[in-house]
Write a structure and sequence with these properties.
alpha+beta, 3-stranded antiparallel beta sheet, 3 strands
Length: 171
């Protein structure tokens, strides 16, 4: 069968990044952070108001601001007194989230800048993890971290096996 006649299958060409680039594979760039400067405020507020307590006090603040003459349900004359404490809690939580996410960004940058041996052009040379692409032949030395999901081609072990500690396997 022809490769083009099987739309649900992808083919990987060993050590041929040009052919592999025709198929849209994910990059090897590690991204574990949640926020970017563009989405922090919106995503943070969305995540915060998914919590029941924050949503409750947000609704109470909105009801306190409603001063409809027909309903007159606000006992604070339209002053949202719960908005102040809610804002303080959200600001502190936002600072904590921003600092934690910054640490994730730094860890991502360190992981992406880690080097490993890649076989290209007839020889092995050091390449950063972020530049590894599908089909690259990667040499992983003993007791080193693997830079991507890999297919074992060869091993120096007598049984041609690879032992991976279960603590490093992510779900």
């Amino acid at each position: 069968m022809d490769e083009a006649s099987q739309p649900n299958e992808k083919f990987v060409y060993s050590n041929d990044s040009l052919k592999n680039s025709s198929t849209e594979y994910s990059s090897n760039v590690v991204v574990t952070s949640k926020y970017t400067p563009m989405n922090f405020v919106f995503l943070f507020l969305f995540e915060s108001f998914k919590k029941l307590a924050n949503a409750y006090f947000g609704c109470v603040a909105l009801l306190q601001m409603s001063n409809f003459p027909v309903f007159n349900i606000s006992s604070t004359n339209g002053v949202p007194v719960t908005l102040g404490p809610l804002s303080v809690v959200l600001m502190f939580y936002g600072v904590v989230q921003a600092l934690e996410d910054q640490a994730w960004h730094q860890a991502d940058a360190a992981a992406n800048a880690t080097t490993t041996l890649v076989y290209r052009g007839g020889e092995f040379f050091e390449e950063i993890w972020a530049n590894i692409v599908v089909g690259d032949i990667v040499k992983v030395k003993s007791h080193k971290v693997m830079p991507a999901d890999l297919l074992l081609l060869a091993s120096k072990d007598q049984a041609s096996s690879l032992l991976i500690p279960s603590a490093v396997i992510s779900t």
